[in-house]
Amino acid sequence: MKKEITLNVNGNNYNINVDTRMTLLEAIREKIGLTGTKEGCGIGECGTCTVLMNGKPIYSCLMLAVEAEGKDILTIEGLADSEGMKPIQKAFIEHGAVQCGFCTPGMILSAKALLDENPNPTDQEIRKAISGNICRCTGYSKIVEAIGSLSRHDGE
Prior knowledge:
Elements: E1 2-9, E2 12-19, H1 24-32, E3 50-53, E4 56-59, E5 72-74, H2 87-94, H3 104-117, H4 123-129, H5 141-148
Parallel strand pairs: 1-5
Antiparallel strand pairs: 1-2, 3-4, 3-5
Helix pairs in contact: 2-5
């Protein structure tokens, strides 16, 4: 069954026609054309598809697009502005927290949600916040270091 919905993604409204079984991930990538959000496992285990919905990280592969109507959705593309990269993106680069880059969009959005809620997280709080995001390249130390560099508890 098809349904016309309006999704607010990165501050813009998109009127799209979707199959009611289409995931939010598919809608973002296929209907809206934003490909920064990746599909990894498709079952909510890896966090590669993480986006922020009303400021909270969610797995877009597990949510139907029709369920996201009326919510504010932020993808990695929504972090960019006329001034370029945000501090969290710069920190990932400066601390070598980006290798293959596949997990990076979801990891950065999970970190953003944490830092928005707790601007001074400890390393333990950082590790908990990103625990739903799997990285197969870095071993997490540099990711934790990058996120921690943005707080006053750097390295605690």
